[in-house]
Amino acid sequence: MKTLTTQVAILGAGPAGLMLAHLLHLAGIESIVVELRSRQYAEQRIRAGVLEQTTVDLMNDAGVGARMTREGLRHHGIELGFRGERHRIDLSDLTGGKCVTVYGQHEVVKDLIECRLADGQPILFESTEAALKGVDTDHPSLQFIYRGEPHEVKCDYIAGCDGFHGICRPAIPASSITLYDREYPFGWLGILAEAPPSREELIYQNSPRGFALYSMRSPTVTRLYLQCEPQEDLSQWSDERIWDELNWRLTGADGWTPTPGKIIQKGITGMRSFVAHPMQYGRLFLLGDAAHIVPPTGAKGMNLAIADALVLSQALTGFYIRNKTEALAAYTAGCLSRVWKVQRFSWWMTSMLHNFADDNPFDRQRQIAELAYVTTSRAAATTLAENYVGLPLMT
User: Fold this and answer.
1) Residues catalogued as catalytic
2) pTM of this prediction?
């Protein structure tokens, strides 16, 4: 077995793991990133695409925001649609000039991978059979197979950034962790289409036939979603049916419809809210989807993962540079203060915009009244805008 030694072993080369590794490198702290998938998979997997102002600022401050600044689409507002009309929420006006940037998660991952490799720092792609050892001792390690040879990374700390279905969270004894979970009775059918955006900002549409979202990924590619059954048979959704349903749900009194184009990707994703408490055990720390999941309505998943990376990087810097352990001990509290606020916002957006099978006519009218209030009250719109552009990273 080949033995490697580092200060922090990071399992997972997604936004959380890569940002943590980069921030630690800037602070002079060593790390090794181990990833089970290939580099190509990491760089091409289409996920979230809306960056909070706080995330944009962090990327720029960390020196990895140049391409995002050139190519990202800055949005100063969003539109809420219901009863055939759309109402704009002016994010910048309501938050002192803040905005969001549309820039795909896979693009963030590309930038962080390129930066790490340019710095000569290791990412061990296509590792297999990963296992954690001794996380409740002072000498934890990460074992895996890399290029056909058994490896062990001996370290001071392990960062579990390996997603909801990874091995890190289950490494915490059931008696030492509480899981908060809620599954929603619907999913999202998402598509990527080769079609230039025909609106400048995102549209969140409440309709009698279910939620729809109009979004984009670049000046030539649109990203659209339809509320559907979580176990829907994707083969029953032809391209023609998808465009017909999008047109029905998104068309308003002004007659606008999304520009159609060749669908280059489609898939169905279930929706859930999930939080693990605590986010640490011994020398193991959980980040991103390993610790929490939010429904995508609030556009928060990647932003939460990057916020976790910042909190842990600062705590580890305090330990290695100043020999302080208080921030490491408080990692869970520091993250979950923000996580639960984001969970509340994501749940609120989801409940306000989607159709629930057990809703009665009263529920439907209450939902429309909520949308009407948010779009006519500056105070209510400010609440939405403050959360959408991003709460402070350290709360």
Assistant:
1) 75, 204, 296, 300, 388
2) 0.96
